[in-house]
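Consider the following assembly input.
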Amino acid sequence: NAGVTQTPKFRVLKTGQSMTLLCAQDMNHEYMYWYRQDPGMGLRLIHYSVGEGTTAKGEVPDGYNVSRLKKQNFLLGLESAAPSQTSVYFCASSYRGEQYFGPGTRLTVT
Amino acid sequence: GQNIDQPTEMTATEGAIVQINCTYQTSGFNGLFWYQQHAGEAPTFLSYNVLDGLEEKGRFSSFLSRSKGYSYLLLKELQMKDSASYLCAVRDKRSGGYQKVTFGTGTKLQVIP
């Protein structure tokens, strides 16, 4: 089992560009999450999903959109990137308890 | 909402014991998790407490007191590889099928020889 995978691992965007981060899990988990992690701020929830076809806003959703068309995939989109979105992005999945995290995507917006 | 407090940094000596504290405030407690995160890597699950008391897993133990809103992670026989950030996360009871989990900012532990 690969667990939770994320692509890409690194990306540099210019302000105003768009991109999609892909998260995939092979554990048949219902719940999936997107977090951002910034120094001194901890992990902050952007969006989450409680099942295929459902999404909901987390703590810091502005500037991001998500989709969960298939149970195993959770996509995070940035329509118009801003320097404030420079961060490390983690995807995670869970069944009922602990979350399993992907390796992260380091995004820099210049 | 939730408020989670952990020390920002700690230093301990190889072979020693270290205790990392976490205090929290929540309207509907439904479990506390500890995660380990090495620099540049993803968090990985260490322990889970939902009832009061101590949970032991090898060199790591986690304690919970729900009445005090307090938990600690105890690391014994410290090794250099234990240098990492330790994240406390609290889960809320919520209706509607989703139980919110909030992460603390983490405690960066440095183990020195």
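The radius of gyration of chain A is 13 Å. Ask yourself how this observation constrains the way the partners meet.
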